[in-house]
């Protein structure tokens, strides 16, 4: 299966997870590419003013993994802006993940995943899995768990 891992990462954590997923999904015989989203101004808080430096073409992928950090108890604005402008996700198998710093429930993980799912479903995508990585000591275990889960979805 041809899989695109579409990731936004401000300080590198989410990108690190994307690289590990790329390795795990490739080992299962998939053709996997990371598409990293970059924005002109990381500090721009107005969703309508966010400028993408490049917009990857997702139409050639059978399946997509979206990854983003949690910002301000929800999905980061660059990822929200990017996902919102995707023309269609019809017939794509999709999984989503977020990374976050705060270990407690109610600090944005489920909220961010909820936003990702809503956008994907509004564009016809089939969201078949999701995961939240809390950036603490045991994160390698969490990353292995979602790698295994996502590998089974595709
Ligand atoms: C502006 C900003 C807001 C953040 N807000 C939250 C938050 O609401 N909840 C949380 O758990 N972590 C929050 N974090 C922590 C990040 O989600 C966490 O460090 C994440 O792994 C960073 O991913 P990245 O290195 O890919 O950018 C925030 C970080 C930044 C810089």
UniProtKB/TrEMBL annotation:
This is Flavodoxin. It comes from the Archaea. InterPro entries: Flavodoxin/NO_synth (IPR008254), Flavoprotein-like_sf (IPR029039). Residues 3-154 form the Flavodoxin-like domain. It holds the Pfam family Flavodoxin_3. GO terms for molecular function: FMN binding; oxidoreductase activity. Gene3D superfamilies: 3.40.50.360.
């Amino acid at each position: 299966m041809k899989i695109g891992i579409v990731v936004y990462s401000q300080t590198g954590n989410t990108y690190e997870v994307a690289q590990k997923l790329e390795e795990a999904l490739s080992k299962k015989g998939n053709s996997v590419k990371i598409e990293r989203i970059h924005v002109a101004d990381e500090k721009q808080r107005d969703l309508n003013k966010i400028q993408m430096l490049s917009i990857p073409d997702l139409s050639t992928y059978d399946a997509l993994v979206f990854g983003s950090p949690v910002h301000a108890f929800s999905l980061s604005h660059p990822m929200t802006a990017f996902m919102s402008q995707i023309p269609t996700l019809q017939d794509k198998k999709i999984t989503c993940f977020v990374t976050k710093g705060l270990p407690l429930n109610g600090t944005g993980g489920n909220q961010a995943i909820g936003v990702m799912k809503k956008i994907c479903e509004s564009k016809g995508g089939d969201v078949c899995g999701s995961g939240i990585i809390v950036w603490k000591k045991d994160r390698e275990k969490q990353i292995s768990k979602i790698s295994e889960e996502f590998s089974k979805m595709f």
